[in-house]
Design brief:
By secondary structure, this protein is an alpha+beta fold. The chain has 2 helices and 5 strands; from the N terminus they run βαββββα. β3 and β4 form a beta hairpin.
Length: 97
Amino acid sequence: MMPIRTGITGLRSVHFGLPDLESATRYFTELWGLTTVAKSHDEIFLRATGPDYYVLALHRTAEPRMLRIDLAIQTRARADALRDALQQAGVETTQCG
């Protein structure tokens, strides 16, 4: 079987749900060196050194969980094909942009 060519060119951001945003924010700012660029009581957005405004979003949730992964991809057609393949595999997807 040939490998699937996805057209993914990069990881833009990851969103995690966590009950303790304050501890998670300290971890990612003090140990990873990320910078807070926006925050509210229930979410915090952290920036790295690349071109994206943020790379990590932390959202207050009752239990820890991964909420979302944002990818950079070559074309809309490749994005649609990847979304269709993920949905067929049972992965919940959303469409942005």
